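Q: Protein kinase domain-containing protein, please. Structure only.
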Amino acid sequence: MGILHRDIKTANVLLTDELTAKISDFSISTRFGTEHSGSALGTTRYLAPECVFEKYTESADVYAFGMLMYEVTHKALPFAECKSGISAMLSAQDQKRPRLAVDLSSPLASLMDSCWQHMPIRRPTIHEVTLLLQRLLQAHTDTEPTDVC
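A: Structure for Protein kinase domain-containing protein:
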């Protein structure tokens, strides 16, 4: 679709009756290729470190998605120990990341870690994230026990 959302967070995800997640609130979104320098758009706890000083790119949305995955899997805000969003953003710029739960599945933990890499070039594309999540879901569905009457 070629859109940078620029404010991916749990508050901007809606669930359908079938529990399908839908991204909402495109008020600050823009199309790929449009120049956007370090205007630090978005919610600070989810904001990629480079967004303050550099152009906002697709990899910043991937970083924010990693933070969204953290919040969903841990039922806690990213950088919850930080008293403000600004201190959370400074922690991210210092290359600190939220601590992952020990019992989190390895593939999911690895995906989160790859999404919030400090260097944008080291993050997967959103397409790669989607493919991996589909494989994880398929593997989970294949191993889920079925009811036997």
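A: Brief note, in case it's useful. The first helix runs from residue 58 to 74.
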